[in-house]
Amino acid sequence: MKALDELTFDNRFARLGDAFSTHVLPEPIAAPRLVVASPAAMALLDLDPAVAETPVFAELFGGHKLWAEAEPRAMIYSGHQFGSYNPQLGDGRGLLLGEVYNEAGEHWDLHLKGAGQTPYSRMGDGRAVLRSSIREFLASEALNALNIPTTRALCVIGSDTPVWREKQERAAMVLRLSPSHVRFGHFEYFYYTKRPEQQKALGEHVLAMHFPECLEQPEPYLAMFREIVERNAELIAKWQAYGFCHGVMNTDNMSILGITFDFGPFAFLDDFDANFICNHSDDQGRYSFSNQVPIGQWNLSALAQALTPFISVDALRETLGLYLPLYQAHYLDLMRRRLGLTTAEDDDQKLLERLLQLMQNSGVDYTLFLRRLGDESPELAVARLRDDFVDIKGFDAWGELYVARAAREGVVDQEQRRTRMHAVNPLYILRNYLAQKAIDAAEGGDYAEVRRLHAVLSNPFTEQPGMESYAERPPEWGKHLEISCSS
């Protein structure tokens, strides 16, 4: 385990130069203090978890100190926001402090969010507030525990610095980790500003750093685009399977690595609702839960357009055609496992769709239904769960089909079935009301609930004694919290 002054930096993106990012120093926040830290994320940098409690930790990630080897840069990019192209975005409140490589040879970006104004702040103050920083921290680590690809969060640092949103709040910083912070919007920026040399330099950097195996292919850029398509198809299949709503799937919020990126008004489904809109600002429902699948394809098409200098239109179109079949295959495989099925049958899609429609019509809790389905044998589980449904006859008909389908799996030991299903069906998820309770306490200066919730969500599949309240259905007020992009 390393101390903070023993990290090894190799700032590869900074070496691309001023056409790609701007040197900016963090603006410190007043009275920095640790809100919460992730030992699992710290381990990615080989850091001793004990250093999180030292004063220098809060000073480093509160903008007061900086490693001599760090090269803080604000990245420039553009992107499509709610379907409309915005020609210049960039890191308006975040800085890429540098890249650290660990003893396993992995490179990790250290990205400080809420670090103050940059040339790309667009009239903003460059700050993040405590509530949004806590939400990003919890979501990053919770998704990782669910085996959903995501950026990671090392810590949240609170402060006494006032900021104004709808009301006065306190500034905070969150330290985000990722192998790369290159977005679809990076390629769009250089494409639409007609800078072919810089676009080629960006492409060569991304290929060499993140897709080296593609360099061995006859058409490296096409091989890279195919990999990006495949990763995003799998990512969004996992979002849909676990009821995760991103909320702002703009192309500047899409990672070229196919990981969950830039958390804003996200939410996990409580009651199943395919039409759920988690972003209070999304009046048209562009980024509703069910729309995440086609929007994923739309965003990949926008990236494809930016890659036309390197790849033929026909090859791009053919590769884009892989997205939906790949998504459907990944999603159905995940949902079979969540239903306790280990083999594939042609009617599995219909069985699943029928269940989801019944859940939608009855407002059934998505996570708890699937968890309880694995508690007992198919017959007993169906009999116990039927009372959750308004259309009991409809559910009974589905239950008969499900029990028969499970029987065709052959003789299955119930304990093995429970173990297998509980390994993919979480008991604990980051419900909005749980996050809000932790935020309310933290805004009052009590960080214990944030830390407790983080610990529970770090082990979502295993029942934890004394933590029963974290697995309950939310109260009615907790189902209707409005979350906006404001942070």
Summarize the structure.
Helices cover 39% and strands 13% of the residues.
Please describe what this structure looks like.
- The structure is a single chain.
- The two termini are 34 Å apart.
- Helix 3 crosses helix 15, helix 7 (292-306) runs antiparallel to helix 8 and helix 10 runs antiparallel to helix 13.
- This protein has helices at residues 39-44, 55-60, 130-145, 184-192, 196-210, 220-242, 292-306, 313-320, 323-338, 348-362, 366-373, 378-385, 392-407, 414-422, 432-443, 448-457; strands at 21-23, 33-37, 73-75, 79-81, 84-86, 94-101, 107-113, 128-129, 152-164, 168-178, 244-245, 267-268.
- The longest helix has 23 residues, at 220-242.
- The chain contains 16 helices and 12 strands.
- It is α+β, with helices and mostly antiparallel strands and 487 residues long.
- Among the domains are: 4-184, no CATH class; 339-422, no CATH class.
- Strands 2, 6, 7, 8, 9 and 10 form a 6-stranded antiparallel beta sheet that branches. Strands 1-3 form a two-stranded antiparallel ribbon. The protein has a two-stranded antiparallel sheet with strand order 4-5.
- It is globular and about 65 Å long.
- The mean pLDDT is 96.
